[in-house]
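Weekly structure sync, notes
Attendees: PL (lead), two postdocs, one rotation student
Agenda item 3: pending single-chain targets
PL asked that the sequence for the first pending target be pasted directly into the notes so everyone works from the same version. It is reproduced below exactly as submitted, 502 residues in total.
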Amino acid sequence: MLRFSVTREGRAVQEVDLGGAYMVGSDGVPLRAELEFRDATILCAKRADGPAALALLWDVPECGAMMLETSRLMDREQPYVLPLELARGRLTRINLKREDWGLFDFEGVEPVAGEIDQARDLLVEALKAETPADQGKMADAALRQAILAGERLSQFHADIFLARRKQIHAFTRRTLGCTVAIENTTDGYRQRLREGFDFAYLPVPWRAIEPKQGEFNWRPFDAWVEWLAKHRMPMRLGPLVSFHENHVPAWVSMYETDFETVRNLIFEHVRRLVERYGNYVYQWQVICGVHAENTFDFTFEQLMEVTRVTVALVKQLAPRSQTLIDLVAPWGEYYARNQRTIPPLLYADMVVQSGVGFDGLGVQLLFGRPADGMYVRDMFQISEKLDRLGNLGKSVHVTAVQVPSQQGANGAVGGCWRKSWDEAVQARWVKEFYTIALSKPFVESVAWLDLADIGGPEGLEGGGLLRSDLAPKPAYKVVKDFRAELLSATRKPPASRPSAQA
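Predicted structure, written out during the meeting:
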C-alpha cells in the first residue's frame, strides 16, 4: 500500500478532496485502487503490483488548482510526503521533456534553465530536511517553482516552433474552427462565427437526427449546411458514431444485447449522413469517444470492428474527404473506475497498428468541470500529452477545447489556472494554449467548443468566447488576432520572375 502524509506550509492538512483522484501505473495507464483520507494521510490500496503514482487535484499558490501526479513510488509502510513527491514527479517529467525537446544547451534557454535549477535546489533542500514538517514546507516552494518553470519551458519551446511553422508557411486556411450551436441561427451569431474562424464543426448527434426509429429531423442541420456552403465556410461534421448517452437514440437500447443489429443500424445511419452531406463536408469526425463512453458494453474486438467498418464506409462514399477518430478524456482517468473501457492512447495505438485507413486523430481538451477528463491541467502537461499523441504518426486535430470565464456555481469547478477563472484568465489561457498546440508540427487544427455562453449542454458554464448577448470576451479577440497572424503566414511571397536575359 502507498501512503502519503498531506501537509501545507509544513502543517498537517485535515481535509482533502479525493473526488477526482486516481492511481497511475506504468506508461501513464490509470490503475484501479481504493483511496481513503484518514488522519492527515492518503491511503492508496491499488490492485496491481509495481510502482505507481497518485494523481489528485492540488492547489498551488500562484499556479492554480490542477490535477498533478507524484513520482512513481513503491509500496512501503512509512508515508511519503505528498508535496515532496508532487515536486519530484514534476521535475522528473521536466527533465525528460527537456531532453526530448533538445533544450539543455539551446541558445536563450538559460533563464528558464535557471528556474528549473532553482526548483531542483529547493527539492534537494526538502530532501535534506530532518522532519516531515520541514520537508513539506520546502517541498511546497519546490513544487510551485517547478510548475512555473515547466510552463515557461513549454512556452519557450512553443515560441520557437510556432515561429518556424510560420516561416515555412505550414498553416492552411482550415486551422482555426469552432463548434456550431445548431439551435442558434441569428445573424449576429453567424457573423461572429465567420469573423473569427476558418471552419465550422457541425455536430450531428444520432439522437437528434433520428429521435424515433425511421423518423428523421433533417431541417435544422440542412439549414446550417446550406448557410455554411453559401458562405464558403469549410465544414467538419460528426460524430457519425458516438456511444455517449446524449448521442444514442433511446430506441436503440432495445437492441443493446445484439451487436450485429446495432452494428447494422450504425452502418445505415452513417451511410445516410455521408450520402446526404458528402458533397459539402471536407472532414468527418467518424468515431468519437467509444474508448471511454461504451453504452453497449461492447468488447474491445467489437469496438475495433465498428471503428474499422465505419471508417471504411466513409472512405468509400466520400473518398476526397478526411476522416478523424476522436479521443475524449486523453489522460484516461475513467479507466481507473471502469475496466470495461479502454485507455485512450492504447485505443489510438491499436487503431493505428490495425491498419484502419483514417487520416487523423482528434482530441478533446476540456477543462474546468469536476468530472473525469475535465480537471484542469497546466500547459506543461498539455504539451506533453500532445507530444504523445503526435508520436503515433498521425496528424492531430484538437476537435474541442474550452475553459470557463467564470467560477462555476458555488465555486464548483474542476480546478483553475493561475487564479480563479474570469474573462482575463480565460483570454491568457487561450493565447498560451493556441501557441503551444499550433507549435506542434503534427497539429493541423484547433476548434473551440462553444462560441457563445448560450452553447450546448456539453459545454462549460461561461465557456463561450462571446457573452450571452453575443458581445465578445477578450478571448474572442485573442483568437481573431491569432487567426490573422496565421493567415498572413499562409501567404507565400510570389515567385520571382526570370530576368529578360535569362
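Discussion points:
- Residues 495-502 have pLDDT under 50 and may be disordered.
- The first strand starts at residue 2 and ends at 5.
Action: rotation student to compare against the earlier draft before next sync.
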